[in-house]
Fold this protein.
Amino acid sequence: MLSLGGVSKAFGAVQALRDVSFDCRAGEVHALVGENGSGKSTLLGIASGFLAPDAGTVEIGGRRRRRRSPAEARRFGLGIAYQTYSHVLDLTVAENLYLAVPKDVQPPRHRMEKWAAARLEEFKLELLATAAVGTLSLVQRQLLEVVKALLANPKVLLLDEPTTALGPPEVEQLHKLVLERSRGGVGIVYVSHRLPEVLGIADRVTVLRDGVSQGTFDSAAMSEESLVALMIGRPLQLAFPERDETARPADVLLAVSGLQGDRFGPIDLEVKKGEILGLAGAEGNGQVQFLRALAGVERPSGTASCNGHALNTKSPLSALRAGVVLLSGDRAGESLFPVLSVRANITLQVLRRFEHWGLLRRRQERRTVDELVRRLRIRMASVEQPVQSLSGGNQQKVSLTRPFLRGDVKLILAEEPTQGVDVGARFDIYEALRAKADEGVAIIVKSSDPLELAGLCDRVVVMSRGKIVDEIHGAELGERRIVEAIVGSRVTREKL
Amino acid sequence: MKALRGWLPLGLMTTLIVALGAYAAQHQSAFLTRYNLGNLLLSALPLALVAIGQTNALLVGGFDISVAALMTMCVVTASFTLQPDKSWPVLLAGALAVAGVGFATGVFNATLIRVLRLPSIIATLGTLSILEGASLLLRDHPEGFINPNVIDALNTSVSFVPYAFIGVVVLAVVGDLWLYRTRTGLAMRAVGLDETSSRRVGLATGRTVFLAFIICSLMASVAGFYSAAQVQIGSPIIGNYALESIAAAVLGGASLAGGRGSFVGTLLAALFLTEIDNVLPLFQQPTEYAQMTIGGLILLALVLYQAPELIARFRSTWVGVGRLRAQAEGEAPAG
């Protein structure tokens, strides 16, 4: 039904996919697994026509795709349920369903609501057809997304992480739906982080790692352990700064209790002074929202206290005043001013310090900047260069300078601190974070790289569906253990 | 809540039109005359037409601020192609030329916005400057009379209601039926509300935005005919229709974020804005008040139309604060 032959795709210098072949037969469920950044999303993007491959072919239902066109892919019989959904939130359930189906399936406009109600019944979704999608819960939105894709009667259906918001009963409901369709001759491509689910539903599994296919296997012959081994492969030799293993008892700096907000919670957590805590989990399980709530970017309920005082999370500024610094993962969008110079980006938050009679004392500013540049080993031609002309790793280092300038920092929240950073620069970043921790600062690192978390952190907590489901520390802390926790081999066994 | 949001602008505009009309009729006998009412409807036509066009641009989440300059350009073009001594076939070709200017501008704007990916406000600002310059180049002072037969034809009325006005009413009603009762209308609102999701479910987002801007410009060129009928000469300076057309669309219920709007609402708002302009001179008030009133009304309307959402937001914030407080109080004795 769907067949990709020798597909390669590069984004700039990053080779996202290298000569990957993948096929999905009619009536089978073919799972695609891999860590974050292993190329799954790119593969789906190419299959669904949003991305054009640099090399290789795509066939849908036996027809060769000629150009980059989502509409053509749909015509050929490809349906897709997006991880981030495709709902228009201000329109009703009925309107969303109506727009998603091909014209020949659409009823006359005035019968739309009755038609939609009948379809919802058919899929056993207890939803009001006239409700705006924006008023639905995430669980309902996710199920609706799958139903929308199914209503278009696809020959092959791509499900991108269809269960991130779902609890065990809904997962079961979804799997029943999916299996029903596959028995009816639809090819299903099932992308998920959750290995127990994958092994429970898939006929075959293809494993991706760093953009390269590790092979396709009969899922009956695979175990979670063997899949994990394929997903992480041989560990990359990476250096990490040394941890102080003697671990003196330190004071608790951050105490979070019952904190909850959009997509996460309730969360109870304590972080000690000088501790680096890792935040692991598959993408979209509330890690980002949790960090942002602490930084005052999103409004949570529940309480958090920092250094004994209640943490004010009303705005980013109040969190900053309390000594909480967020290092956003959205480098270009949120943490840097790409057209400003390296110097300006570094000192922007503390300019008042260099002020004298309302004017900036450039020499003093330069001295501070130069020292930081040396300390973080930022490589560039001049500090007056615009930040956007630096390499990704060096840009990331510039965005990491902020906590070093403020003496009052107590808690650093780092989102993907080494995203897009080459191996050499990574060590500099790890070292800088560790040095800050040794000064007594607490650090929470959200990362999708388990190897990094295992090497850098003193302790790692794993989030799933917005809650902390596992905590790993001491001798147990290792890449494999983290990946196992993320793919849910431990948790779901307890809960199902 | 959703239904309320849709009907609120229509109800508000109707109420304001009637209230202002009643007040004026009571105090000035000149207001409720056939002459004045006919005049009011005629002078509302250019704004109504261009605002209905503007509603299309707003529906897909854009702006078109080049409409005023386009109307001027159309008047200037008409002063060449619709001159008094021309025969009917030549006049027909001339009218097509005016519409052609509108169509070409629409294609130009849409290309800037969809193909070159410029923000619509910047793209149409550029178009505005080009058109203004071109108009001044063609007519640096008012010159070139417009064919009086054409003007008479445009102004034909039954009793005091111009045929053209009836046409605009029909257009607005049909437009709203299309927008809220057909598949393509729904698709257009979906594109305006959420382009990414619309593309994901396979809607032709690019074509929708393209069409919206072309319709917007075409409507502006039709509005240009009626401006020409009013000024009757090739003047390079025509009123402030860019802002007024956006004002009318917003007062009529269009959302600046796209996806919401009503052609009937826009028409009612255009009528109301013209009514303010019409009434003030009757009371010997300076027309500057009109401008200030319109500005205040737009702000008021924006706040009012968003009230349901604002209330919802306040409520959820208060619930959150309340929860925090309850927790703090619950913990205080323990600690």
Observations:
- The longest strand of chain A covers residues 14-24.
